[in-house]
Amino acid sequence: MREDFLHYIWNAKKIQAENLITAQNDTLRILSFGQYLQQSGPDIFNAKIELNNQIWAGNIEIHVKSSDWYIHKHEQNENYDNVILHVVWEHDVAVFRKDNTEIPVLELKNYVDDMVLKNYENLIVAKPFIYCEKDIAHVDTFILESYKERLFIERLQQKCEPIFELLNQNNNDWEATLFCLLAKNFGLNTNGTIFYKTALSIPFLILQKEAVDIGYLEALLFGQAQMLPQTPHDLYTKELQSWYEYLVLKYKIDKPILPPVSYYKHRPDNFPTIRLAQLAMLYYKERNVFSKLIESKSIQEIKQVLSIQASTYWDTHYTFDKQSLKKAKKLSASFIDLLIINTIIPLKFAFATVQKQDIETEIFSLISTIPAEKNSILDKFKALNLDIKTAKDTQSLLHLKKNYCDLKKCLQCTIGLQVLKKII
């Protein structure tokens, strides 16, 4: 059972809503199923229920098991204090509010029609992960490895397209283009767009001028990202606010219109505050980041450029105004690998393309020294007994899945053609 299916059951009202009884043996009536906003906090907002003839209004949380409440550490998050109903597939443990009252639980498995489950199971079974999943591991190793190299180059060519668009937007300034690309990747999937727009909003010449002072640089980045508190409390935060106001007046910088950054589901080391502070330190430490990275011929040289940590304020902070235990906020080896995969190698390839240089051997050497990435798609490829050791393997397979398997382009895929030959 998957949580997203439980969300579907609830939002589509696919439950037998008559004569509901909670796990605590209380009568339950759903007056309003609420809104599924897919935001931080509870799954369902503004629901209304009647419990033992008493009306309750508030939020609903949905889990596969009741114990997931504790696995997700909701008991430590005040956003969940207003949960009026815990909807689960299986009730295995009681969950209590701060006042020690137990949160009512609706166990869905007692109120979902068997046909709904059967249709769901048929849907899941009917869609294989990839159509050649029973045969891909038996494709000739030489053919498979050669094809993966081709897939990797295709992926790089795709990644070059937005780089060239950005380069044109930056009047062919490679340093400015790299800054924007790095900003996006420092922001990860959640805050990447906000960081990217922040970088675009700062003329790169201004950034270079102010990079002689880490305080001014942080003020500029945090200010443009609209991450500075409106009423700062500690001295450094107040200084950043003051410096930012000065820089805006000095350079007449336009403030971008941005949504707030998200901290939700991020570990503290990935908080947007830490990542933006690390980006600031990179440009404080290095004057010509693009030139140094382009000239780097090995992973070790690239990692030397990217071996940074946030300024000393962040040794005792994860967010503004709130002190934490002292810890240097260095870029981790795994995060540097992500930067190399998603920013540095595509940029090197794009630059070589413009310069009409052949650097495929260098690119393959770099990507082959980075460990394999991890995600749910790659886990499924591993389950097919494929040899996945490096980032070249993972990048190739991700490109294969998105651009061939998902689009059913089996007849345009070397693997698909090999499988067809055996079948025929």
Automatic annotation (TrEMBL):
One of the Pfam families matching this protein, by short name: DUF2851
Name recorded for this polypeptide: Uncharacterized protein DUF2851
Listed InterPro entries: DUF2851
Highest taxon in the source lineage: Bacteria
